[in-house]
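Usage example:
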Amino acid sequence: MDKIAPTRAPSFRRRLVGDFLPPLLFLAVALVAWQLIAPTGWLINPLLLPSPGAIAKAGWELLGAAYLGENFFRTVYVIAVGFVIAVVAGLVMGTLMAVVPLLRLVMYPYIIAFQALPKIVLVPLFIVLFGFGAAAKIVTAAAIAFFPVFMNTMVGLSLVDADQRRLMESLTASRWQVFTKLQIPSALPLIFAGVKVSATYAMTGALAAELIAGTDIGLGRLISTFSFGLQMDFVFIIVIVIAVMAYLLFTGMERLGERVVFWGEDQERGGG
Amino acid sequence: MISIRGLSKLFPTQDGTLVALRDVNLDIQEGGFLSFVGPSGCGKSTLLNIIGGLLQRTEGEVRLRGEVQDRPRRELGMMFQAPVLFPWRTIVENVLLPVEVLGLDRAEYQRKAMEILNLVGLKGFERAYPRQLSGGMQQRAALSRVLVYDPDVLLLDEPFGSLDEFTREALNLELMNIWSATRKTILFVTHNIGEAVFLSDRIVVMTPRPGRIVKVVDVNLPRPRTRDVMHTPAYADRVFEVRELLGVAH
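Running the assembly step on the lines above writes:
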């Protein structure tokens, strides 16, 4: 071990073998085992937990059905609109709370109380207020996704490094200059962490509202319908579609975050 | 240029009041290099921050060219122990921060920023981000940032205190060259006696509890100075004198 090899980024092939092969292999083994066990009825009733083959067949069938797309895009729409409303409202409210101390003093207890409330219980209320269409679900998604952005914006704008503030002060910076040149960039890592969490919350909110509503369209609605019909193979397909969607959403936000907050979260501020 | 009369600063603490500065009187001439030396808690940084207008005094007054000085001003450039660079800005963008804040012409100062970065040995790092630079290079960038907008007075609060001996010495030499070329008024806080003697025209010797000035020592070493000054008897005498005043064992 007396020779040190130069470190190089692992090649794509190496990554394929090193990073992707083990989990894929595990999945293959698990699926095969499941497929072999399922028809015997041993362990699990195939009616409740269908075999991978049956699920794949259902998937093929479902992909051919026109209503899948309709339901899918409705849910994507609800998540997207709810998320955007949550981010905009969270940024605006969080900023107001950070820069207007009086507002924070007056509103803070109520906001904490609303945050603690499981928003799911409001779904029936939202349906009464906004009807059985997309609106009630969008409001649910937005209500749940609001808090991470809101809280992190408020905290991020308030937590500014004392030395950096002193520097701005020594340069005779105005309050507006401190806000735009120091507070906003300082807050960005925390704000973006909040946005990431909000994205997954918006998804949870949208699907939960669709499940609870039990009418109208959407992937949540499809799950409840198929469950009631004991079509578990179809339920699994919808779950897989949602899982893939969640994965793409999360990694997409992660990539975006790396671009926006390119200087990393562990900012070097130096001691002193 | 700056006159300080009967200046006191009290900090309320859990167990009573801390007298950070008591009855400080001092006159600072234009164009001189003045150091404040003393152990931790002698109030040297507090004094610098009051002069810079970042801290309010409790009693007495500070005047800058006859005018009451109690707020940050464009004429006073401050530099701290930490580089305090913004991690989201490149080095040149950090250096141009004062230009933006003061609303100066960015295009004109862009060239000047490049020149200064070249002068302090950061050529080629203009587009780098602070985290890519060593501590010494970050402090060079901080020095460039205070030089770029050409304030009349530089208030330097232990600017090289967190750097290693070699880097610190190199930066002291550069600071001296810059001072020789520009003849700015420099107020330099340090707890390093040798450094103070090497750089200064005058040294304000301070002791703690309560923070006060013991004596102002005239250095009287010929200029321009090089490293060789540190091997002369006159240099050793000054260092000895300051140590005596501080009661440091030797």
